[in-house]
Amino acid sequence: ITFSNNLTVNLGNELTPTQVKDQPLVEWPVTPGTLYTLAMIDPDAPSRISPTMRSVKHWLVVNIPDANITAGDILAGFIGSGPGKGSGLHRYITLIYKQTNRIEGLVRNDTIPSRLGFNMTKFALDHKLGEPVSGNFYHSQWDTYVDERETDRAFRGDGIVPDVIDASPKGRIEVTFANNLTVNLGTQLTPAQTSQQPLVEWPTVKCALYTLALVDPDAPSRADPIYRNWRHWLVMNIPGKQISYGNIISAFEGP
């Protein structure tokens, strides 16, 4: 298994999520004219101590002729490692099975819910795959790319990208309302809970100025947003993250 920059998987070496974000080259000894199944799983989700989502399906391709993965039938497209912050090392296992017959009747599903709780042993039994004929694995733990990927997935999943903005932000803002209520990529909060100006923090660069904007693209409704975007807060020329020192264009107004 070879990722970008010739990084190879070698029976438990540690690679970062950044290093394994793109689909790798996978090769194995083949019997000409044979079909194979490739599976990549994380059995340690959300953590190895408490793997309640075992296993996460990171990649699943069936009916691969010889080792030509692109000619196989993709049941779950490749996604790189995404271990949660503080969850420790996860094992990422790639297995190759030799098929006795062509697998039919299955359709591709790349949704997150469909990837959780995947039982590779049961899948192998159901499709008479037997034991894996080849395999390898690496370890990985959280790095900042994981948050970038989760942010992008959330912004796209809720239609913010490309409906409201063209691209997802690289970093994530920490927004905390009264009573330590935090915003976390789509959490639901009531108008009463968000009536007061929150504490907002983000990674900063020395001597840089920032603009903060809070908008509602769904006014008066998401189905008919004729008032898009309702400006709830706009501050410019913020030094670092000292919002009170910026130029207030529109003072904070809750939902």
TrEMBL record:
Pfam families: PBP. It comes from Medioppia subpectinata. InterPro entries: PEBP, PEBP-like_sf, PEBP_euk. This is Phosphatidylethanolamine-binding protein.
